[in-house]
Amino acid sequence: MRRVRLADGRDVAQLGQGTWMIGEGRGDARAEEAALALGIDLGMSLIDTAEMYGDGRSEELIGRVIKGRRDAVFLVSKVYPHNASARGVPAACARSLKRLGVERIDLYLLHWRGGTPLAETVAAFEKLRAEGRIGAWGVSNFDAADMAELAGVPGGENCATNQVLYHPASRGIEFALIPEAARAGSTIMAYSPFGHSGAPLRSAALAAVARRHGATPAQVALAWAMRHPHVIVIPKAGSVAHVRENAAAAGLVLTAEDLAAIDAAHPPPARKHPLEML
Ligand code: NAP
């Protein structure tokens, strides 16, 4: 598995696993648990969740899967903006830790910006970090202006990642957020690499590139996002078949010709666009 180095020196898998809508009773829970466990075996050891997902049921399912193998995974969870206050953050974190059945969340994110001043949320994150209840913290759905404001807050320089929407049909973050994260020695975590609904996977350009490599459009979408060495990618899969397919994408390297074909169908941004989010 390719690795990405966080600013604090820790290495994480570049290809991880999302868990939105896992553990909610939409799919067979045992199949979801088997898929997640196989993904860990195959090196997709970074697991992304949130207190929001299934009102905590996603964290509980993860807790069952990682029981007895805590050290094999890098856990990412997120706090709701309405819990992002000095009192709310430690309380929400304690609930997530309990559901996950662990002593520490490796990376704890503010899910999106809300009404709490950033300085208050960052101070609460830094306190959790000093206490060892989280390993690092970051943000999600922050646009370039939010990141600039965050950089001006005490401790703001410790933000480890910004988790944002990124797939071939939504490339706005290439204009500023991706290059700025590289300059700052930080990372981007690309969510919904299949566009959540899978619609971007029906692109004729992705299909043509996939045929050249004997791969699938999903694998091309993952390899495409992973071409940036500081971008971590977190597809969600509810079946072992999809997990196997996704894990194999880590071995796929796209050529300049492939990238040009994708650019022709899905052009990179020529100017700043407001951040898209789900
Ligand atoms: P996604 O990963 O873009 O797409 C998931 C869909 O793709 C599911 O229907 C899944 O089906 C299907 N799929 C998985 N592997 C496939 C393959 N190899 N071929 C074809 N289809 C495949 O969607 P997402 O769940 O929105 O995003 C991924 C993760 O990002 C989330 O789970 C969550 O952890 C995170 N996220 C964060 C935010 C945020 O605001 N921070 C927002 C959205 C998402 P099966 O389930 O049947 O396998």
Model description:
- The protein has 278 residues and is α/β, with parallel strands linked by helices.
- 37% of the residues lie in helices and 15% in strands.
- The protein contains ten helices and ten strands.
- The chain has helices at residues 29-41, 57-66, 88-100, 118-131, 144-151, 177-183, 204-213, 217-225, 240-248, 256-265, and strands at 3-5, 11-13, 17-18, 46-48, 74-79, 105-110, 134-140, 161-165, 187-191, 231-233.
- The chain has an eight-stranded parallel sheet with strand order 3-4-5-6-7-8-9-10, with helices on one face. It has a two-stranded antiparallel ribbon with strand order 1-2.
- Helix 6 (177-183) links the parallel strand 8 and strand 9.
- The longest helix has 14 residues, at 118-131.
- It is globular and about 55 Å long.
- The model has no long low-confidence stretch (mean pLDDT 97).
- Residues 18-20, 48, 111, 140-141, 163, 191-196, 198, 201, 218, 234-239, 242, 245-246, 278 line the site of NADP nicotinamide-adenine-dinucleotide phosphate.
